[in-house]
Amino acid sequence: QVQLVESGGGLVQAGGSLRLSCEASGSMFSINAMGWYRQAPGKQRELVAQITSGGNTNFADSVRGRFTISRDNAKNTVYLQVNSLKPEDTAVYYCNVRGFVRGKVSPQPFDAWGQGTQVTVSS
User: Fold this and answer.
1) pLDDT tens per residue, the chain (123 residues)?
2) Is 28:76 a contact under the CB 8 Å cutoff?
């Protein structure tokens, strides 16, 4: 069982910044990709940013240059620094972690989601 605990959301004015954090815990054998998705009211969940175990990153076009993603492997934590926020960034942000947990015979894949943290940007 893998649990994710998110923090860092809130209400901020346009142009402001926030730092989201997500810590993974549980009987993990290894962590591969860590990332953030978001879902605005009436819209589908979309990928915001992702970082692999090797440090390769991927960003949605709408946030590239404004958001940065990083991870601390020793703490099993992924961070999302969100700068130059716009009202259209308002959404619930979800952490996603994929990897393997220890199995009885061999490692088993997992795909875990956080509970979501609200980011609201006022104009």
Assistant:
1) 899 999 999 999 999 999 999 999 998 999 999 999 999 999 999 999 999 999 999 999 999 999 999 999 999 999 999 999 999 999 999 999 999 998 889 999 999 999 999 999 999
2) yes
Using CA atoms, how far residue 14 sits from 18, 38, 69, 76, 90, in Å, is 11, 18, 20, 30, 10
* Exposed / middle / buried, residue 104 (Cβ in 10 Å: 0-12, 13-18, 19+): exposed
3-state secondary structure 69-109: EEEECCCCEEEEEECCCCHHHCEEEEEEEEEEECCCCCCEE
Of the chain, the end-to-end C-alpha distance in Å amounts to 40
How far is Cα 9 from Cα 85, in angstroms, rounded to an integer?
12
